[in-house]
Structures are given as structure tokens and as C-alpha cells.
Amino acid sequence: MLTEPQSVTIGANTRTLVKTESDKTRSVFTDRANGVRLEVSQSNGNRLRSLEKLTLTKVVTNPLSGILTEDSVTVHVVIDRPRVGFTDAEIKDVAVANFGWHTATTNANTTKVVAGEF
Predict the structure, then answer these.
(1) Cα radius of gyration (the chain)
(2) Which of 28, 41, 57, 62 could tie 21 with a disulfide, CB 3.0–4.6 Å?
């Protein structure tokens, strides 16, 4: 189990997230006042899957109608692996390489992906 609280930094704002849900396979941490939710779960089937899901919810204005609605953006990180054949260290190294690719050169690749590049 992850410790409580968890913290995430979105932009320049660090948010403290308290555990609001927990069961045998997942935990949810939230900062309700600022619309931040972190869900971490594990599933065991033919393959093992770890999911981290960070969601930011806010009130947005429809530019055409001017109507205010609540909407969200979610970023998922999934580590999908076989039951045998890879060590925890190898799996961690692949995950760290992925995160490094996103954050290299001041987050350039993340910016490109968000803009629609592939």
C-alpha cells in the first residue's frame, strides 16, 4: 500500500492528496478542493497490470455557448508485464526510460504528443 498523503505537482502547484478509497487492488487519493484525483491499481490476469491514473477536473466554459460545465483531463500510465521473464529492476528501468523520454529537453516530447504529434 502506498503511504498517505501522496503529493503531485501540476504546473507550479503542489497538491496534497489524502486517501479517500481503498480495497484489495486499488487506492484513490484526492484533493477535492482543487479537483485532483490519483488512482493506483493492480490487476492480475494472464499478465500483471499496474495502472496509475491522474485526473484534473475543473469548470470550463464552452466557447460557443458560454455555458459552464465540469470537465476533466486524465493521464494514464500502465505497466503491462508477463508473470515471469522480467525482473522488477528491468521493468522499473523501462518505466524510467519512458518517463525520461517525456521529460527530456524541458518536456519537449510531452508537449509534442499533447499537440497531436506521433
Answers:
(1) 17
(2) 28
Q: Which domains does the chain have, with CATH numbers?
A: 6-83 (3.30.380.10), 86-118 (no CATH)
Model pTM score: 0.91
- Euclidean distance between CA atoms 39 and 43, whole angstroms: 13
The per-residue pLDDT string of the chain (118 residues; one tens digit each, 9 = 90 and over) reads 899 999 999 999 999 999 999 999 999 999 999 999 999 999 999 999 999 999 999 999 999 999 999 999 999 999 999 999 999 999 999 999 999 999 999 999 999 999 999 9
Q: CA 60, CA 12: separation in Å to the nearest integer?
A: 20
Whole-number Å distance between alpha carbons of 1 and 22: 9
The rounded distance, in Å, linking the Cα atoms of 19 and 111 is 30
